Amino acid sequence: MAGGRESEAVIRVRGLVNAFGDQVLHDHLDVYRGEVLGVVGGSGTGKSVLLRSIIGLNEIRSGTIEVFGRNTAHLSDAEMRDIEMRWGVLFQEGALFSSQTIAENIQVPLREYLNMSQELMNEIASMKLSLVGLPENAAPKHPSELSGGMKKRAGLARALALDPEIVFLDEPTAGLDPISANMFDELVKDLQKSLNLTVFMVTHDLDTLRATTDRIAVLVDRHIVVGTMEELRRNPHPWIQEYFSGPRGRAAA
Description:
Layout: E1 9-20, E2 23-25, E3 29-32, E4 36-41, H1 47-54, E5 62-67, E6 70-71, H2 77-84, E7 87-90, H3 102-113, H4 118-131, H5 148-159, E8 166-170, H6 178-195, E9 198-202, H7 206-212, E10 215-220, E11 223-227, H8 229-233, H9 238-245, H10 247-252
Parallel strand pairs: 4-9, 4-10, 7-8, 8-9
Antiparallel strand pairs: 1-2, 1-3, 1-5, 5-6, 10-11
C-alpha cells in the first residue's frame, strides 16, 4: 500500500452528493496508489453507484471527483479519454459481448482508444489471456462457451488490455463457487503485486476482503468509514459490528 500519504492518492472523492432513488450518498474518500481498497455496504447504499460515478457513468449532483489529481468534471472529452486509458473496469458478470469471441472482447478497448494492426491486437489479446490464466484456445470461443469463472477472467483480461494503473472490480466473485472465488482472489492479488495496480473493488464477500484488501471503505448511514479489517472490527457502529464481527465475519477471520 502507498502508506496513506495525501500526495499519493490517485482517486479523491470530496463532498459527493449522489442521488439514486430515494437514497443519497455523500462523503469523502481517498484511494492510494498501489493499494487494494474494498468497498462494502448494505443493499441500497450505493456501492456500484460510487464506482460508476468515479468512472463517469453516473452523473453526480455535487461534490468533486479527482483521478490522478485532475477534477474529472472539468476535463474535455480528449482529456477524459486520456484518463480512461489509465484505468480498466470489470463489471458484474464480466459484461462480455455475447456476439464476439473472447479475443474480440479483449480487443474492444484497443479498437476504441488506439490505432493498431489486427495482428498486434491478436498478440495483445493472447498475452492478456495468459496473464489471467486462460488457455490460448479460449480466444476463438464465445462467452456462452465459458464457465462463470472463465468469464470473469476474460472480463479481467479486457480490463487489463490497455495496461491500466487502476482497475475497478464490481462484485468480481459474485456467482462463483468457493474454489473459483478463492482462485480469482489469488489472481487479483498476484496481478496487483506484479503490475503495481491500484484496485478499487466493490464486493460483499468477506473472504475476498480478507484475502485481498489493504483497506476497506464501508458505506453506512450516508457516510464512508474507512479502515483495515482489524480496525473495522473494533468500530462500534451496529452494522459494521454485525458485518465484520458477526458469525460470517468470525468465520472469514
